[in-house]
Amino acid sequence: MAFIAIDGVTHELHTLIDDRRIYSLINDFLQSPQSEITKVKYLVMDMNASYGRLIKVVFPNAEIITDRFHIVQQITCAFNVLRVKVLLYS
C-alpha cells in the first residue's frame, strides 16, 4: 500500500510514498523544508493509529481529521453488529 499526500485546497498531489511504515513517512516528510511543514494545518486520514505519531513528530501545528469514508464505514459496521445481535437474541 502507498501513502498519498494531496493538497486539500488545490487537490494537487504533494507526494506518493510507496511505504506506509511510520519511520519511512517521518523520514520522508522531514526532508521537506521546515517552512512548508509548519504551514500544514490539517491532516485528513484513515483511522490508522500510528499516524498520530507522524503528526506529533513532523507536523506539530496540524490537527488530525478522520475522513468521512472511514467514519461511515465504522458506523455501518457497528450497526450491522447490533442488527445481528438483535436478530439472534429476539
TrEMBL record:
It comes from Floricoccus tropicus. It comes from the Bacteria. InterPro entries: Transpos_ISL3, Transposase_DDE. PANTHER family: TRANSPOSASE FOR INSERTION SEQUENCE ELEMENT IS1557. The lineage of its organism: Bacteria, Bacillati, Bacillota, Bacilli, Lactobacillales. Pfam families: DDE_Tnp_ISL3. Residues 8-85 form the Transposase IS204/IS1001/IS1096/IS1165 DDE domain. This is Transposase IS204/IS1001/IS1096/IS1165 DDE domain-containing protein.
